[in-house]
Amino acid sequence: MQELETPPTQNQDPPPGFNLFPNLKPPNKTLTFHQISVLFLTFLAYASFHASRKPPSIVKSVLSPQDDDNSHSGWAPFDDSHGPHRLGELDLAFLSAYSVGMYFSGHIGDQINLRVFLSVGMVGSGVFTVVFGLGYWWNVHVLGFFVVVQIVCGLFQSIGWPCVVAVMGNWFGKSKRGLIMGAWNSHTSVGNIVGSVVASSVLGFGWGWSFVLPGILILVVAALVYLFLVVCPEDIGLELMEKEVEMSVEGEALVNSEKMEMEGVGLDEGENFESKAAIGFLEAWRLPGVVQFAFCLFFSKLVAYTFLYWLPFYLRHTAVAGVHLSHKSAGILSTIFDVGGVGGGVLAGFISDKIEARAVTSVMFLILSIPALVCYRIYGSISMFANVLLMFVSGLLVNGPYSLITTAVAADLGTQSTITGNSRALATVTAIIDGTGSVGAALGPLLAGYISTRGWNSVFFMLVLSLSIAGLLLFQVVKSEIKGKQNEGRWLWLGTWLM
C-alpha cells in the first residue's frame, strides 16, 4: 500500500544546540543524561509559563485598591467600585482563550515538531506579557487594550502544556509515573512562587515591571528549549529499555508485549500503521475515563485558579491578627499556597503509585480539602502562624488532585491499551483534559471577581461546592478501581462497603 511506503514521521534532526556542543550527542551522553535533561528543560519551560501568569494576581490590589485610605490611588479603568469585576473579566479573557486554544494546540502538537511549537508558544507568551506591562509606561487606560493582550497571550500559553506532557511521555514509561510526574509537576507551583516573588519585589518601581521581568524570563528559557530540547529518543538515535518503552510521538516505540498482543490477534501491517495515525478529537473524548476526569478537573482547576489569581488580593484586604498586609507582603505570603502545592503534587503521585488507583487518590484529596478551606476562612485571620499553616495545608490538598489529573492521569488515559499504545493520542487527550479544566479555571476567577464584592464567605462557599462536585464526578471511576482491586483480592472491605 502506498500509505505504508511513506508513513508520517515526526522524528527530527538533533536540536541546533547539539551542533554547537557535539559532546551532547550519543554515545558521549547516555540515555539517563538525556532523560534528566528533558526533565529539567520541560520543568523550566512550564515553570516560566506559570511565572508569566502570576503578575495579574500580584498587581490586582494596586490597580484596584478598593478600601485603601488613599482614594486617588489605583489605575483606570480598574480604580472604581467596578474594578474587581473588570479584573475578573481580564482573567476570563486570558483563561477563555487559553482553554479554547488548548483544544487546538493539543491536536496540532500531535502533528508537528513539538520543540519548535513549544518555543513559539513561549516566545509569544513572553512578548505579550511584556506588552501588558508596557501599558504602564504608555499610560494606557483603555480596558480593550488589556483584554486583547490577555486573549492573545492566553492563546500562546495554551501551547505549553500539551507539548511538555507529550515530550515527557516520550521519554518516561509508566513505572513510578505518578511519583515522577507529581514531582515534575511542581513546576506549576515553583513558577507561581518565582512569579510572585519577582512581581512583588519590583512592584514598588511601578506595576509594569511586574510583567516585564517575568516576560523576559520566559523568552530566555524559550531560547534554551529551542536549542537543546530533544522531543523523543529516536531524534538522537536512542531507544528506551523495552520494559520502559511505551510511547513516542509517532507511536513507533511500543512495549514489546503490546506488539505481541497485536500480532496474536492477527493485526497486519496496514492495521498496525493505522494505529500510529493521530487520534481524532471526538475519538479521544470517547476513550474510557476521559470525560469523568476532564469535568472533575473543570471544578478542581476552578478552585486552584481562583487562589492563583485572587489569593494576594484576598490577603491584602483581609486582616491577619488585626493587621492589613502591604501589597508586597500579601504577594509574597501567597506563595505559601504554592509551596503546599509542591508537596501535594508529589504526595498525590506517590500515593497513587502505591495503591495503583488515581481516582481514589484524587477523591481522597478532594474530600479533605473541603474542611481545610473552611478552616482557613474561619481561623486564618487569627494569627500569622495559623494563616501560614492553614494556607499550606489548603495548597497541598487542593493542588494534589489538580496535579495528578493533569499529569499522570492524562498520560495514562492517552496511552491506555484501548488505543494499543498509540502515543499520538497523548497530546490530544492531555489537551482535552486540561482544556476542559481551563474552562473552569476561566470561570472561577471571573465569579470570584463578582462574588467578592458581596463578601468572601460567598467565594469560599463557591470553592467548597466546586470541590464537592469534582469528587462526585469521579464516583463511578472510584467504584471501578475498587472493584478491580477487589477482584485482585485487595481492598475487600472497601469494595464490599461501596458495592
TrEMBL record:
Which residues does the UniProt record annotate as the domain Major facilitator superfamily (MFS) profile?
Answer: 40-483
Task: Could you list this entry's UniProt keywords, alphabetically sorted.
Answer: Membrane, Sugar transport, Transmembrane, Transmembrane helix, Transport
Top-level taxon of the source organism: Eukaryota
How does this protein lie in the membrane? Multi-pass membrane protein
The biological process GO terms on file are: phosphate ion homeostasis
Primary location: membrane
Q: Which PROSITE patterns match?
A: MFS (PS50850)
- Keyword Transport among record annotations: yes
Transmembrane stretches, by residue range? 31-49, 116-138, 144-169, 190-209, 215-233, 290-311, 331-352, 359-379, 385-413, 425-447, 459-478
GO molecular function, one example? Answer: transmembrane transporter activity
- What are the boundaries of the region Disordered? 1-21
- Which GO terms of the cellular component aspect does the record hold? endoplasmic reticulum membrane
Q: Does the keyword Transmembrane apply?
A: yes
Which InterPro entries does the annotation name? MFS, MFS_dom, MFS_trans_sf, Sugar_P_transporter
Q: State its location(s).
A: Membrane
Q: Which Gene3D superfamilies match?
A: MFS general substrate transporter like domains
Q: Which Pfam families match?
A: MFS_1 (PF07690)
- Family statement: Belongs to the major facilitator superfamily. Phosphate:H(+) symporter (TC 2.A.1.9) family. Belongs to the major facilitator superfamily. Organophosphate:Pi antiporter (OPA) (TC 2.A.1.4) family.
Q: Which PANTHER family match?
A: MAJOR FACILITATOR SUPERFAMILY TRANSPORTER 16, ISOFORM B (PTHR43184), SUGAR PHOSPHATE EXCHANGER 3 (PTHR43184:SF12)
Instruction: Specify the protein name.
Output: Glycerol-3-phosphate transporter 5
